[in-house]
Amino acid sequence: MDSAAVLTALSSLMALIVAAGSMYVALKKAPVDNENTKVDTATKYALIADQAAERALKLDERVEELETRIVEQAMKIDEQARKLDERDREIADLRDWAERLVHQLQSVDITPVRMRTRTNE
User: Fold this and answer.
1) How far apart are CA 78 and CA 84, in angstroms?
2) 16 compared with 94, residue with greater pLDDT
3) 90 to each of 34, 98, 112, how far by Cα in Å?
4) How far apart are alpha carbons 81 and 78 in whole angstroms?
């Protein structure tokens, strides 16, 4: 065998040893990298869960504020409806009184002045 062939064989053998060593190191390192990836993923999920919980808490607080405002607005609406009903009753009473007064005046031959309306002003 000539020296070139021996050198080529040794080079090939060295390349195989280096390749095998590299594969061995990669295989040994893979579980550690895999574990690091799992930890990183778990950490990111925990961060996302914390952020989601914080947002949910803020939304709950906002919902409570809005519910309080809705109750307050409903109370104001009820109060306005009560005042409007009271005003309608008062108008009906005044209208009845005015009709009776007109009837009294007409019964003694007095023509009352026409009522002014403010709806057209």
Assistant:
1) 10
2) 94
3) 83, 12, 22
4) 5
Q: Which residues contact 111 (CB under 8 A, 6 or more apart)?
A: 105
Tell me, yes or no, if the pTM score tops 0.70.
Answer: no
Please state, in angstroms and as integers, the Cα–Cα distance from residue 53 to each residue in 13, 45, 56, 60, 67, following that order.
Answer: 59, 12, 5, 10, 21
Amino acid, single-letter form, for residue 54? E
Report phi then psi at 118, rounded to 5: -100, 0
Instruction: Give how far Cα 117 sits from Cα of 92, 114, 120, 121, Å.
Output: 15, 9, 7, 8
Q: 43-81 b/e with 16+ CB inside 10 Å = b?
A: eeeeeeeeeeeeeeeeeeeeeeeeeeeeeeeeeeeeeee
CA distance 105 to 112: 7
Q: Give the span between the Cα atoms of 54 and 50, in whole angstroms.
A: 6
Residue 102's pLDDT is: 95
Instruction: Kindly tell me the sign of the dihedral angle through the C-alpha atoms of 30, 32, 33, 39.
Output: positive
How do residues 98-109 score in pLDDT, each as one tens digit? 999 999 999 999
